[in-house]
Specification:
Blueprint lengths: L2 E12 L2 E12 L3 E5 L6 H8 L7 E6 L2 E2 L5 H6 L2 E4 L11 H12 L15 H10 L15 H13 L5 E5 L7 H18 L2 E5 L3 H7 L2 E6 L2 E6 L1 H5 L2 H8 L13
Parallel strand pairs: 3-8, 3-9, 6-7, 7-8
Antiparallel strand pairs: 1-2, 1-4, 4-5, 9-10
Helix pairs in contact: 3-4, 3-5, 4-5, 5-6
The protein binds adenosine-5'-triphosphate.
The site of adenosine-5'-triphosphate has 11 residues, from β2 and α1.
Length: about 260
């Protein structure tokens, strides 16, 4: 197992509040790992530290063996960490392909070069990425008229334009209908497998988590209380207590038990 992301004793305190408290975990190459927990558990704070938006109070984050703790977001992004957000950040006035081309231009550091010709740059590469997410047939549509599920798939293509080794996805299926959720997560799982990248995602929909995550971590009040397979997490007494006051976390069979 090759460790891509190593998190050691990571903490973030806001005054007296321990939003994230001594969290330690790994993400391996080719792993699709979920970070779950009740509202306010510390998931976004954790993500924000991994991506450089927040400086940790203590602890260390390493990417492929290199210490990236407290580095600015751009440096972390340059090292191959991508992120998708709960709210999509596409340019509405551009077409689907142009949005991906802009991301490719930025990845190849040509952002200030020959701007008038930008619409021609990396068009084929953009179409190849859109093919992966099933959006090639919508390449020339304006983003403003896309359905929400299509926007999320476009966002995935934009994140892939940076050729990430690790992708952080913050509630990727929020606001989607169940069928669309399943489609997006299956697509994500296929990308993880085909490109051998790692994905760490937060998610409130337990169907999505238990059906697709290889491993699941549970945060509660800033502390990691479980890190294991779906079966291990489901049978963890502390997790059951947190989620359902002692009931069963998830009854259906899952894909990775
Ligand atoms: N900038 C901040 N200043 C003070 N407190 C904060 C700040 N950001 C987050 N918190 C607090 O830290 C705790 C963890 O919040 P966080 O947003 O990380 O949780 P979460 O697990 O992502 O929740 P949700 O599932 O609702 O998005 C909460 O009590 C929150 O109020």
């Amino acid at each position: 197992m090759t460790v891509v992301l190593k998190v050691e004793n990571l903490s973030k305190h806001f005054g007296g509040l321990r939003a994230v408290n001594g969290v330690t975990f790994d993400v391996a190459r080719g792993e699709l790992k979920a970070l779950i927990g009740p509202n306010g558990a510390g998931k976004s704070t954790c993500f924000n530290m991994l991506m450089g938006q927040l400086k940790p109070s203590a602890g260390r984050v390493s990417l492929n063996g290199e210490d990236i703790t407290g580095k600015p977001p751009r440096d972390i992004w340059r090292r191959g960490v991508g992120r998708t957000f709960q709210i999509t950040g596409t340019y509405q006035s551009m077409t689907v392909a142009e949005n991906v081309q802009m991301a490719l231009i930025s990845h190849h550091r040509k952002i200030f070069a020959i701007r008038p010709f930008a619409h021609k740059l990396y068009r084929d590469e953009a179409l190849a990425l859109l093919e992966i997410v099933g959006m090639a047939d919508q390449a020339d549509r304006a983003c403003a008229i896309l359905a929400y599920g299509d926007l999320k798939r476009l966002e995935l293509a934009i994140a892939l334009a940076n050729n990430p080794t690790l992708l952080l996805m913050d509630e990727p299926t929020a606001g989607m209908a169940p069928k669309e959720r399943e489609r997006l997560m299956q697509l994500t799982a296929d990308i993880v497998r085909d490109r051998n990248i790692s994905v760490l995602f937060t998610e409130h929909d337990m169907d999505v988590v238990f059906a697709h995550a290889h491993h699941i971590m549970v945060l509660n009040r800033g502390e990691l209380i479980a890190d294991g397979t779906a079966a291990e997490v489901r049978n963890n007494a502390q997790v059951q207590e947190v989620y359902l006051g002692g009931g069963t976390l998830y009854a259906k069979e899952d894909a990775h038990a």
